[in-house]
Structures
1.
Amino acid sequence: MTQPNQRIVHWLVSVACAFVLAGAAGACSSDGDPNASTLALRLTGTGALPEGGEALALTVQSVSVHVAASGSELLAANDTSLDADGHWHTLQVGMNASLTGAGTAVNLGELSLPAGAVNQIRVNLAPVAGLVAKPAGCTLDLSAYAATGWRITKPFKPFATYRGVPHVATLGLDLSAALVPQGNCYQLQPALGIASWQTSGHFLAVE
């Protein structure tokens, strides 16, 4: 549940933006849409790499964000009933990412979102990933990867998106849980969560 002080921050931000919009059209909007907010997306590695591992190398093709009506519940990671409901907003990325688990985040880009509640995020990867390690790396088994992408598997409370307000979501791949030993390498498993969420510069509780 959102804490009272967080609700106050949300309300103050919305009111402030409304006054700005009244004085200068579009000053708080994105792409000229006064109803839009912005969401900057980042990806980081959490947990620890296997012994000898230096980085998990993968390619993020796109990230899709599901925005439902305010007050909606979390969309479960295995719930595919809304895969084509028209409420997914996609950021095309096409970027190589090297996750070390050292807390460094890769900036994936920014997209515009309508007001509502973000209740699921889906990451689409290229079909090849590898573990950079000494003395030699290896190619990961991605057979557990879903063709529709990986959703957030760790529970989080839906985050409200406010008219004209900037948000930042840092997605965290738990490297210790995602890399499962298999033969001479590892299988990459979905172990994706939201490491942090910011609304107008304020960090909000994730769970």
2.
Amino acid sequence: MKTNIEKFEDLFTDYSLLSTNRNGIDGLFTVYSLLPTNRGIALVAALVVTLAVSILIIGTLYVVTQSTIMSGAGKRYATVSEAADGSIQVMKDAIQLIAKGEPVSSLPIVDSTPACLVDSVLFNENVGCTITLTLPGSDIFSSYSANITVTRLYASPLPGSRLEFPKPSGSPPSTAIYYRIGAIVTGPGGTRAETSALYRYVS
């Protein structure tokens, strides 16, 4: 009785002879035709190329996105930096108005509670007063806030002759009052700008 191996050999021989009789080709061709072909290599190559192109596209999108984020952050910082510089100028104007006895209602500032701006400008030395700057366009700049701190440092007569600092005849010598002004402006995304200036007001 034939074993399974012998039955398989007989079946393979019959199939090879049948192929030879029909096509006139050596039966060994049938053996090679039964083996796996290389047709899957093209699919693998296509998948590799697709993966490489996808990585390039994702990398490009990432670079563009990061560039946009950095550009936006730079613009926000430029905005708060300019607002901080403007806050310093607003406080200088406020000091001039207060020193002349004029109201500061024309300026976009809100005094603290209790009010301390006038006392800090005219009387109290080395005592800071922090006020809030009201930014224009509340709908646009709703996420921005600005705080200004002014501190009167000291006052001293100006050196030099009366020609350098002319005053009407009989008036007292000119006096310089020195202030330290600091401004902190915060914006969206944690953007923050802080600046300070030393200001001299000559009375």
